[in-house]
User: Which sequence fits this backbone?
């Protein structure tokens, strides 16, 4: 089945609709939105919507066969149960949608635990009702729970919650003692950051297409949202990250921060801004971006601001000035869709990448030499390699920090540096 969704919002009074943002979130989670419906009325205790409207939507969407119906409202178990029966498809709310986005992006164990914790804390108050509903009939998303007694299920959730809290505490203790030794990637790392819907993923895909992919099979440990790329013949890692979201449900704040670890660890952060936003919207988002980046420990000087969607924006001059004030550099205007401005971005990236240095080594053949050599192919460019007698001669070029690391490993195997230009320049 296609990843299609239908969106619904119920509001007791007119005013600003949350549907446009919900649609952006749904798309960020990978859904194509088939249709959106809204109703202005007091919440109905059985369907959230009015019953008549609910039936009307059910009829209108039956032939579309959406994978999910996504409400912008928080649903009570009985409402969810009734709606699921009526629509004959899974019904979720905004909270669960955001959870899906975070789950896709969770790279570390900590992030995974945080997300599971938020999910369980959200479910706990509804756990008993959900079990009762599940017993009444099938409730997608709660398969097989009918066999548990409601109390047993609640107890299980509580136990799991305290287990997760303990684990997270252990991780946070470990992190504070290890902070300085935090593992840095062996390659220069760039993270894409910014609001949901700014165009991070579109830019990620564009850059991945523009550059030479670096043997994917070499980088087996990379997450699905990180690519190894060669930009102007230099290898880097590029990460797409979770987007900032307005009105983030309180329970999800911790998970949000832990999924941002890639941004914290990056050498440079490309901040993707949406220049097609209205001026007030743009200003508000820019402010949130600044304070969030600040909070997670990213210096303004590590940020490369880009104004995306240049193809659909006009008169962005005042917005550019705001960005300049915030970061002290002019933003690069790009369109991740048309490719406009991307050469300028690539040029800027080429400028901030560390200069490659060269090194010549002679390493005695031993049992770990193969993995050392493959490390060199992975994290640097091997410009010469020759096996002779009991030695391998290597010439490699790469980031100074990668080469230093390589040299230490080679020395550990009895290798010696024959010649290098590292340190010659100041
Ligand atoms: N017109 C235009 N649309 C864009 C551009 N970049 C992204 N988009 C669209 O904006 C939406 C959000 O893009 P996406 O990359 O998913 O944003 P993300 O949430 O930041 O990853 C998608 O519908 C993209 O097709 C652009 O430069 N110009
Ligand atoms: Mg994205």
Assistant:
């Amino acid at each position: 089945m296609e990843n299609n969704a239908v969106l619904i919002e119920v509001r007791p009074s007119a005013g600003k609709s949350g549907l446009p943002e919900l649609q952006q979130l749904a798309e960020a989670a990978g859904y194509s939105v088939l249709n959106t419906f809204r109703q202005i009325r007091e919440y109905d205790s059985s369907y959230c919507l009015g019953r008549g409207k609910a039936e009307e939507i059910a009829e209108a969407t039956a032939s579309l066969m959406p994978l999910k119906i996504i409400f912008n409202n928080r649903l009570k178990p009985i409402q969810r149960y009734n709606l699921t029966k009526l629509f004959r498809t899974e019904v979720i709310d905004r909270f669960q949608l955001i959870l899906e986005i975070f789950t896709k992006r969770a790279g570390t164990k900590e992030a995974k635990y945080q997300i599971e914790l938020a999910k369980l804390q959200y479910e706990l108050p509804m756990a008993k009702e959900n079990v009762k509903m599940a017993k009444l009939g099938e409730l997608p998303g709660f398969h097989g729970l009918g066999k548990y007694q409601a109390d047993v299920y609640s107890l299980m959730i509580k136990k799991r919650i305290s287990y997760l809290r303990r684990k997270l505490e252990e991780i946070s203790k470990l992190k504070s003692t290890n902070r300085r030794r935090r593992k840095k990637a062996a390659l220069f790392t760039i993270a894409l950051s910014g609001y949901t819907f700014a165009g991070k993923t579109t830019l990620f895909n564009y850059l991945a297409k523009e550059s030479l992919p670096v043997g994917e099979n070499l980088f087996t440990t990379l997450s699905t949202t990180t690519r190894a790329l060669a930009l102007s013949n230099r290898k880097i890692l590029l990460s797409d990250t979770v987007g900032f979201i307005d009105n983030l449900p309180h329970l999800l704040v911790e998970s949000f921060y832990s999924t941002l670890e890639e941004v914290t660890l990056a050498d440079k952060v490309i901040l993707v801004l949406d220049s097609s936003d209205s001026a007030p919207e743009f200003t508000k988002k820019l402010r949130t971006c600044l304070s969030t980046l600040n909070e997670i420990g990213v210096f303004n000087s590590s940020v490369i601001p880009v104004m995306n969607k240049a193809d659909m924006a006009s008169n962005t001059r005042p917005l550019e000035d705001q960005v300049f004030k915030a970061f002290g550099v002019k933003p690069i205007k790009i369109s991740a869709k048309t490719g406009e401005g991307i050469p300028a971005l690539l040029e800027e990236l080429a400028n901030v990448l560390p200069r490659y240095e060269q090194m010549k080594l002679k390493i005695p053949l031993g049992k770990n030499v193969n993995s050392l050599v493959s490390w060199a192919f992975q994290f640097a460019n091997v410009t010469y390699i020759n096996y002779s007698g009991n030695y391998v001669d290597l010439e490699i070029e790469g980031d100074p920090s990668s080469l230093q690391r390589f040299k230490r490993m080679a020395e550990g195997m009895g290798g010696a540096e024959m010649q290098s230009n590292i340190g010659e320049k100041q």
